[in-house]
Amino acid sequence: MIYKQKEIAITSEFIKLDSLLKFAGIVETGGIGKEIILEERIKVNGEVCTMRGKKIRPGDKVQIDEIKTELVIK
């Protein structure tokens, strides 16, 4: 699958997965982010992730298959 890459720059050591989805404009609310994470619709570095508090650090890749988007954290 070919993903459209979107680079996201963070200024802290990490950002939680649910916050990242909102920060990147993938979801409108944290509640929606929580739902899609729990529904196993998000991959972190190629692995399905169901932890909404997962710490995402620079260098990590978050994939959302249904919109063919990959967030690359800088």
TrEMBL record:
InterPro entries named among the record's database cross-references: S4_RNA-bd_sf
Keyword RNA-binding part of the UniProt annotation: yes
Alphabetically ordered keywords of this record: RNA-binding
Name recorded for this polypeptide: Ribosome-associated protein
Gene Ontology molecular function terms on file: RNA binding
RNA-binding is among the record's keywords: yes
Protein origin, superkingdom: Bacteria
